[in-house]
């Protein structure tokens, strides 16, 4: 009996030890779970707003700053191409603006505090930038001033703005924009440099230059493209073939692209038309899922540029300048996938909320 009692006591002690171990183990698991939850909250709620995203020279931007900039872009500058691109496009915009402010003065007149203040007043609707009354709709003067008028004309003084009206308008605007004054003035400064650089590259381009007039036939298969070449060699009219067979809906009648310059075409198209004279057509060019044949319909050694040529050429020059200027800056870009998602979600949520969604 004594042996049995000692055995039962030992079994109870062993069971109690096992129970204590279970409690200790459960407590450890709960503790680890709590730590994981706390860490998750820290990562998703605390770290992202303060997480480093990009630094340009000495200027650093955290995730919260990128969100604020992304919200501004969405409401005032058209926003990103898609929801998935919000963070990346916003960081690209920040880099461009840094390059404009830091490298713009190397090529154009420096933006002054007075320039920024005037632009700020225009943005707030406190002053209006009226066109010259002598100008036509296209901005070109419709009348030549007489010498007397030229001698007596004085610059129109800037309108005065009431200080309290300015303060109230600025406060309301910045509240809606989610930016402080320094941030918004930095945006204005970059905008003014962008405008001055466009004017600079437009002046460099000049009013006219060599151009070609292109027509195009776009078909879906290589066999169809080869058949087009055979038909042309057999004497078929390019325009008629374009009207009958081309699937390039953006082209005009007879496959008309219009007057352009080779620089605005893809590298493959440039290579295909490089040595062509007026009246000659290219070999088929692969363009994505299609095949294209080009006709150089006319060649002009010096023709006035139309906006359809000037604007993309200037844009191309500005884009090249921005890319080269950013490359001269010390940039530390650190946008992780989690941070990108966090930024995209915050910008989308804010925009949706403001729109009443």
Structure description:
By secondary structure, this protein is an alpha+beta fold. It folds into three domains: 1-50; 53-138 and 158-205 and 312-354, Triger factor/SurA peptide-binding fold, CATH 1.10.4030; 209-304, Chitinase A, domain 3 (Roll). It contains twelve helices and eight strands. It has helices spanning 2-50, 63-76, 86-103, 113-123, 147-152, 163-177, 181-205, 222-233, 238-245, 267-273, 307-327, 337-354, and strands spanning 52-56, 59-62, 208-219, 256-260, 280-281, 285-287, 290-304, 331-333. Strands 3, 4, 5, 6 and 7 form a five-stranded antiparallel sheet that branches. Helix 3 packs across helix 11 (307-327). The N and C termini lie far apart (79 Å).
Fill in the keyword field for this structure:
357 residues; alpha+beta; Triger factor/SurA peptide-binding fold; Chitinase A, domain 3; five-stranded antiparallel beta sheet; three-stranded antiparallel beta sheet
Summarize the entry for a quick read.
With 357 residues, this protein is of the alpha+beta class.
Q: What CATH architecture of the largest domain would you give? A: Orthogonal Bundle
List the domain count as a whole number.
Answer: 3
> What level of helicity do the residues show?
55-70%
The major sheet is characterized as:
5 strands, antiparallel
Q: Which residues form runs of ≥5 with pLDDT under 50? A: 24-44, 132-150
Structural class: alpha+beta
What is the CATH topology descriptor of the largest domain?
A: Triger factor/SurA peptide-binding fold
What's the overall average pLDDT, rounded? 85
Distance between the termini: 79 Å
Estimate what percentage of residues fall within beta strands. 5-15%
Q: List how many beta strands DSSP finds.
A: 8
Tally the helices. Answer: 12
Radius of gyration: 33 Å
Shape: extended
Q: What is the helix/strand order?
A: HEEHHHHHHEHHEHEEEHEH
Q: What is the CATH class designation of the largest domain?
A: Mainly Alpha
